[in-house]
Each structure stands twice: as C-alpha cells, then as structure tokens.
C-alpha cells in the first residue's frame, strides 16, 4: 500500500546533543510508561508540514513535543535527532528510543518513538499520529535505518509498559474524539491511493463551487467512484459515518467477498450491509467485541481520523 510520510520541516545543519541537554536527559524522572501515556494522548492529531503543536504535527515536531512534555529537550529536525543520544541496535530497542527511516531514498527522512512490542508511534502525513508495526513488510520493514537512545529511563516492569502500549493499540482513538469530515477522509484516500483528477475546473456537486480550494481532491474521489454524494451534494464538512466508511473503503481498495457479520445494529436490508459484510469478510472489521456495544458495528457513529487510519492499515 502506498504510504505518504513525514519529511523534514527544514534542512538543518547536523548537530549533536549539548552537554546541557545530555545532563537534562540523564536526570529525567519520567518513566517509559509515562512517556507512552504522553505520546498516546495525541493519537489522531492530524499531520501538518512543519507542525509543532496539537493543531498538527510533522514527524520530528511530534517527537520534540512529546519529549518536552516529559521534561527532555530534543533537537527540532530528524537530521539532528539521528545524531543525538547514543546508537542502539534494533535487537536492543527499549520503549522511548527514537527509530529512523529512509522514506525518500536520500537518507534519514522520518522518525518515530519506539513503543515496545515491535511497534512505534509517529506522525504520518496520511494518518496523523498513529501506531504502526516496525516490521511492516509492506513498507516500514524495508525503510528502517537506525535507532538512538535519548533517555536511559529508570528500569520499569515490562508488564507496566506493555499495558500502556496494548491499551493504545486496542483503542488508538480514545484520545482523538474529533470526527473526521467527509472532505478530510477524501483527502486521506487521495494521498493513500495517489489519485489524480481528470477535471479540475468544474464541479460535480451543487454545494461545491468550481473554485473550491480542494476541488482536485473532491473531483478525484468522485471520478474514482468512491464518493458520490447525496441529492447532488458532497457535504464536505459533514462527519463521516461508519456506514459511509464501509462503502468508501470497499470502493477505494476494490474489496470483494462477503460474509454475513450478523451485527445487531445492521439490518439485512440496510444499504450499508453489503459493504460492512465485505469489510468483515476481509477481516478489516470485527465490530465491537466487548462492553455494552458488543455485537454491534456502530452503523451511524462518526469516524475519527485515527479510526479511519486503523481500518486502512488492516487492508492488505
């Protein structure tokens, strides 16, 4: 699956940690699990080129923000970070280590924070802040370059750290409650699939002017048959529902096959049922399996940025 990832906010001179920063890192009281709790708080925050705040992060901006909250200063850019701290073998990674990737073919261009259990948390330009497998055979496994240890955290029981990581993996959008709009979902799919519009000087929808700033995105998903709108309108600012998400994922990735999921909240005659059954057949969704919503899909619930990203990640 094609991925669109973080690149450097700016080209900077490579510098090492100063003694002051090293001393600060050495004396930090934050534990690995506390660091991961901080990192998890921003899952779902959207990607923003050059972003260093919770309104949007790039990859290094996210790392710098998280470590600052933990009481540690780190450099601003990926090219500086890769020379900070001490080198760590991939086989010796610990929670909190920085992991680096070559996504551009021109050296280190992306970074994240190792989260344990062979996962890392990072700001992806197509999904925002998310958790990803370090050994993803479709992309990350072949892009890995090196790792650096910024902080030698006090020893903690691995079970405590694993609990934090597992909680984030099971409910990665717990702290990202803002629904994703139909326009933002369309833009994420355009980036993921590399879609290009045929027409950029006309509109297919009554509520979208031909000079709309995102006309290329909207036309691209319409021409690909992914978003068809309702009653002639695109409803760009409307929230994307889980029912609508099922349709656009099936259409986007040409998923086939159908297994009756028997979700309690999805009537057999619902327009969305065939799409949901296809997602279930392809192991993209299992619905809610625990709690008061067990056995349901969440047909009319809104989709968050991270939830959409996780569903997309499950499509191979």
Automatic annotation (TrEMBL):
Gene3D superfamilies: endopeptidase domain like (from Nostoc punctiforme). One of its GO terms (molecular function) is cysteine-type peptidase activity. Residues 1-23 form the signal peptide. Residues 29-151 form the NlpC/P60 domain. GO terms for biological process: proteolysis. Its EC number is 3.4.-.-. The keyword RNA-binding does not apply. InterPro entries: NLP_P60_dom (IPR000064), Papain-like_cys_pep_sf (IPR038765), Peptidase_C40 (IPR051202), SLH_dom (IPR001119). It holds the Pfam family NLPC_P60. Keywords: Hydrolase, Protease, Signal, Thiol protease. Residues 201-258, 259-316 form the SLH domain. Belongs to the peptidase C40 family. This is Putative endopeptidase Spr. It comes from Bhargavaea cecembensis DSE10.
């Amino acid at each position: 699956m094609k991925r669109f990832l973080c690149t450097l906010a700016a080209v900077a001179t490579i510098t090492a940690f100063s003694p002051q920063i090293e001393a600060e890192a050495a004396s930090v009281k934050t534990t690995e699990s506390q660091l991961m709790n901080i990192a998890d708080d921003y899952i779902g925050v959207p990607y923003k080129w050059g972003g260093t705040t919770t309104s949007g992060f790039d990859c290094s901006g996210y790392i710098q923000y998280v470590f600052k909250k933990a009481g540690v200063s780190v450099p601003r850019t990926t090219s500086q970070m890769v020379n900070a701290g001490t080198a760590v073998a991939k086989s010796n990674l610990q929670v909190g280590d920085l992991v680096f990737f070559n996504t551009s073919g021109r050296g280190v261009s992306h970074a994240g924070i190792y989260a344990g259990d062979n996962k890392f948390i990072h700001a992806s330009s197509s999904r925002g802040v998310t958790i990803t497998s370090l050994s993803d055979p479709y992309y990350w496994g072949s892009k890995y370059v090196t790792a650096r240890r910024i902080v030698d955290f006090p020893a903690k029981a691995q079970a405590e750290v694993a609990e934090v990581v597992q909680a984030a993996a099971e409910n990665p959008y717990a702290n990202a409650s803002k629904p994703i709009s139909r326009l933002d979902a369309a833009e994420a799919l355009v980036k993921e699939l590399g879609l290009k519009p045929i027409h950029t000087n006309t509109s297919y929808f009554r509520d979208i002017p031909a000079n709309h700033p995102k006309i290329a995105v909207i036309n691209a998903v319409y021409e690909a048959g992914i978003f068809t709108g309702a009653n002639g309108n695109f409803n760009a600012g409307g929230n994307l529902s889980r029912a609508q998400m099922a349709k656009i994922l099936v259409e986007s990735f040409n998923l086939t096959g159908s297994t009756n999921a028997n979700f309690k909240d999805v009537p057999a005659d619902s327009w969305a049922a065939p799409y949901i059954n296809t997602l279930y057949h392809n192991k993209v969704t299992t619905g809610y399996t625990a709690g008061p919503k067990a056995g349901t899909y969440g047909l009319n619930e809104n989709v968050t940025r991270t939830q959409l990203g996780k569903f997309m990640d499950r499509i191979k």
